Amino acid sequence: MNDKLIYFLEITGLNWFVPLAKIAGGEPAGFQFQQLVKMIGLPLIAMLAFLFFWHFGAAKVDTSLGQLPGPVQVWEQVKVLNEEHQAERQRETDFYQRQEQRNANKLAKNPDAEIKVRDFNGRPTFIDQIWTSLFTVFVGFLLASLIAIPIGIVSGLSQNLYNAINPLIQIFKPVSPLAWLPIVTMVVSAVYVSADPMFSKSFITSAITVMLCSLWPTLINTAVGVSSIDRDLLNVGKVLRLGYFTTVWKIVVPSSIPMIFTGLRISLGIGWMVLIAAEMLAQNPGLGKFVWDEFQNGSSNSLSRIMVAVLAIGLIGFALDRIMLTLQKFFSYDKTANIR
Amino acid sequence: MESYLNIDHVSIDFPTANGPFRALDNVNIQINKGEFVSIIGHSGCGKSTVMNIVGGLYQATEGGVILQGKEVNEPGPDRAIVFQNHALFPWLTCYQNVELAVKSVFGKTRNRQQIRDWTLHNLELVHMTHAKDKLPAEISGGMKQRIGIARALAMEPKVLLMDEPFGALDALTRAHLQDSLMEIQADLNNTVIMITHDVDEAVLLSDKIVMMTNGPAASIGEILQVDLPRPRQRLDLADNADYNHYRSEVIKFLHQRHARKAA
Fold it and tell me: Which site among A135, A168, B39, B216 is 20 to 30 Å from A320 CA-CA?
């Protein structure tokens, strides 16, 4: 049981708690305690030092929007933003209750009455924006992976194809999302025409921009991973006369999984960064828009609220990376590999 | 009479910037069914190239390989290969590694139970049943090579090709595996081509030793028939005059007549 718990903690990257689990499992507490101090104590000290410098450093900077906020003011805004979110949810519930009530009354008076059901049209709160951003980055990342992994595999297997497309990859890879954005916006406006669109155009634009920027690391890493497969393994496949797709599925994909995931992790990180920038510039809903709106708003709380967003962006990026790391460890055959 | 496997005047050129490079020149070997043939020579003499041509991984520039009267020029399970570095799939257990081969070769002709039995039978043949659910990374080098041999045998090959199969192992493990291989060979009477650079291994295991000259344009120097009675025992042979004669023949070939120029 304890072994399973430790394995779970290690594979999910929650290594901090491994010493605790080991102490609970009856291992000598002294050594595990040292490990605990190393794993939790040191980062904690660094974190406190950071807060200290932030607190006293920020107090010395005066901006046109007032003093640069320190940790205390930022924490205030975390609470405020959360309260605003709760309040908005309350308004939504109330709205639907009133609407239901009204419609019920109408129907009671006249069973044939035409009733109207309207959606709640409230202001998206900070937390709504987080979900929008997460969903957008997920869609863009998924699209990118669906394109990049197959192309990476095919071009890793064929040196000629790789030589052919390599210059294109190298040219498009360094292009900033902000350069893509106007083109994507125009193309989406022109192509995605529908009377009753399933997704809003701004969502599609952001997702495609994310996709364009997060294609490359996955593509390149997959191609490199595939082309560096042990030749003997492929020869085994030839001796067994496996077909092209069987070879890919049974030999190529499993042996390049570690490299594919390395690429996916970089891609997701880039996608997340790109998304924020794209949302700011294009005024697409999401965290980027939140930051931009607060900046334009220019109230005395704006800087604190932007900092909340900055921290949220960082924490979510960290969490996304952890999730990818966990998946990578789960899918890799070499569980002992030291993946960071 | 037509021999079982005929390596018929094979030459191979590899393209280089300075024109074709002739690696093998006019290699001609006849092998009978059930014969154990070793190919020995200095490193770089093209031993592995011969094996890769028989295995179908390389195409001969001139000549060809004829197995049971039919030319073979692509890889196939009738010429199973045991690789020097075992080439097991690291994400599959030992059982799954062998099973993959069994399924690919017999998937259409045998049912699930037969596939399972045949996989287990071959693991038993190399004495690896106890580790069938382990990953290759969890077993020793010798054990990995046993699985590699089991996988090759499971394909029921007409010819078993072994590319320095024990080259990466320590001397004791190598001796164990050689003994196992002799046992299996006595049981199944496979036709085997083994590449080696170990003189004792060649004499102990083979019916015929093909000694190759140094490259470029390597060819066959001599072919030595080893007429030692089977089953052979490593210990008994140590003082056997015939054994030592064969051994010194090979050593003289390698180190006197075709000594490698200072590497």
Answer: A168
Give the per-residue pLDDT at A310: 92
Question: What are the pLDDT digits (tens) for B4-63?
Answer: 999 988 999 999 888 888 888 889 999 999 999 999 988 878 888 999 999 999 999 999
Residues 6+ apart with CB under 8 A from A265: A321, A324, A325, A328
Q: How far apart are CA B174 and CA B177, in angstroms?
A: 5
- Kindly state whether A176 is in contact with chain B, defined as any CB-CB distance less than 8 angstroms: no
Q: pLDDT band for position B187 (50/70/90)? A: confident
Min Cα–Cα distance to chain A from B63, Å? 21
- Look at the alpha carbons of A18, A20, A22, A24 in this order and tell me if their dihedral is positive or negative: negative
* Residue A195 CB neighbours (<10 A): 4
ipTM, interface predicted TM-score of the complex: 0.89
pLDDT digits (tens, 9 = 90+) for A285-297: 889 999 998 888 8
Give A75's contacts (C-beta < 8 A, 6+ positions apart): none
The two tokens of residue A235 are 């020869």
Q: Does B81 touch chain A (CB under 8 A)?
A: yes
Neighbouring residues of B169: CB distance < 8 A, sequence distance ≥ 6:
B141, B142, B145, B177
Q: Which domains does chain A have, with CATH numbers?
A: 2-60 (no CATH), 126-331 (1.10.3720.10)
| Residues in chain A with pLDDT values less than 70 | 1, 13, 334-340
What is the H or E stretch that residue B27 is in? Answer: strand B19-31
Residue B56 to residue A162: CA distance in whole angstroms: 26
Query: Which chain A residue has the Cα nearest residue B79?
Result: A239
Residue A123: per-residue pLDDT: 79
Asked if the C-beta of B137 comes within 8 angstroms of chain A's C-beta atoms, the answer is yes
- Which residues in chain B have Cβ-Cβ distances shorter than 8 Å to A238? 56-57, 74-75
Residue B161 touches partner A, C-beta closer than 8 Å: no
CA distances from B89 to A17, A242, B98 (A): 34, 14, 10
pLDDT tens per residue across span B18-31 = 888 888 888 999 99
Q: Using the beta-carbon criterion (under 8 Å), do B100 and A255 form an inter-chain contact?
A: no
Better-scored residue on pLDDT, B192 or A33: B192
In A, which residues are within 8 Å of B81 by CB distance? 235-236, 239
